[in-house]
TrEMBL record:
The keyword S-adenosyl-L-methionine does not apply. Belongs to the sigma-70 factor family. This is RNA polymerase factor sigma-32. PANTHER family: RNA POLYMERASE SIGMA FACTOR RPOH (PTHR30376:SF3), SIGMA FACTOR RPOH HEAT SHOCK RELATED (PTHR30376). One of its GO terms (biological process) is DNA-templated transcription initiation. One of its GO terms (molecular function) is DNA binding. InterPro entries: RNA_pol_sigma-70_dom, RNA_pol_sigma70, RNA_pol_sigma70_r2, RNA_pol_sigma70_r4, RNA_pol_sigma_r2, RNA_pol_sigma_r3/r4-like, Sigma-70_Factor. It comes from Terrihabitans soli.
Length: 290
């Protein structure tokens, strides 16, 4: 018998041996734990609800994770429920704990089902755990639907995009693949890996170097051309064209003691002087008016 099987059977046996609790006894144990932090009461309360944990964990056994791990994670959710439960609300502890147990198991599956982390939002979790069921139901009741139609209906039902549905379906349809694995099993020398065929969207090295050289050349030409400007023209050009926050004509006029129309005229004249100076230095250089 496997180790996982031994642990699972031990947990099941312990759960079956635990006595059922009447409503009054359950409430008394919850009060003792809530008010007095009575660990014996917590242990008895948790042990009596391990059947519930095992029952919920069994519903997720088809996700390929050890059943013993699912039960243990469900037990963590059970203890979390016990820590948050308010016995004065007159709700059965099993009703309250069910959500916490299921949430703990689902979080564990999402963390360990794949080495690639999936979405953790409520809608993404609902998509992960409902996709197969919804696809099977639609295929059964609407056998003539195309894949696009099924994805559209699932997306509308759960509240996600069709792209998210298609992406989740592709993740669920196959196991994880290593990028360092050989491209084909027949490649005895393992010369080609999947990573070798990934498309890089970044610019090519020669393009990056070329753009950097052009940028340095333009910057040098601009600094040289700005020497033809007067101090006032240079101040206006820097404030209007070379600052992260563009100064307004009104603010520059108030600072220089001139009207905003005069600032506009000086700016246009300075830009024209820059165009001429840059054209003489490099005919390919362009200065935009705005």
């Amino acid at each position: 018998m496997t180790t996982d099987g031994s642990v699972r059977h031990g947990l099941v046996r312990a759960a079956m041996d635990a006595p059922f609790l009447e409503r009054e006894e359950e409430h008394l144990l919850a009060v003792r734990w809530k008010s007095d932090c009575d660990e014996a009461a917590l242990h008895k309360l948790a042990a009596a609800h391990m059947r519930l944990v095992i029952s919920i964990a069994a519903k997720f056994r088809h996700y390929g994770l050890p059943m013993a791990d699912l039960i243990q994670e469900g037990h963590v959710g059970l203890l979390e429920a016990a820590a948050r439960f308010d016995p004065d609300r007159e709700v059965r502890f099993s009703t309250y704990a069910t959500w916490w147990i299921r949430a703990a198991i689902q979080d564990h599956i999402l963390r360990n089902w794949s080495i690639v982390r999936g979405g953790t939002s409520s809608t993404q979790k609902a998509l992960f755990f409902s996709l197969r069921r919804l696809r099977w139901r639609l295929g059964r009741t609407h056998g003539d639907l195309t894949t696009a139609d099924i994805n559209r209906k699932i997306a509308a039902a759960i509240g996600v995009s069709e792209k998210d549905v298609a992406l989740m379906d592709s993740r669920l349809s196959g196991p994880d693949l290593s990028l360092n694995a050989p491209l084909t099993e027949s490649d005895a020398d393992n010369t080609a890996e999947r990573m070798d065929f990934l498309v890089d969207d970044a610019p090519l090295p020669d393009q990056t170097v070329s753009e950097r050289i052009d940028e340095e050349r333009r910057s040098k030409c601009l600094k040289q051309a700005m020497l033809v400007l007067t101090d006032r023209e240079l101040k206006i050009i820097r404030a209007r064209k070379l600052s992260e926050e563009t100064a307004t004509l009104e603010s520059l006029g108030a600072m220089l003691g001139i009207s905003k129309e005069r600032v506009r005229q000086i700016e246009n004249r300075a830009l024209e002087k820059l165009r001429r100076a840059l054209s003489e230095a490099d005919p390919m250089f362009e200065v935009r008016a705005a």
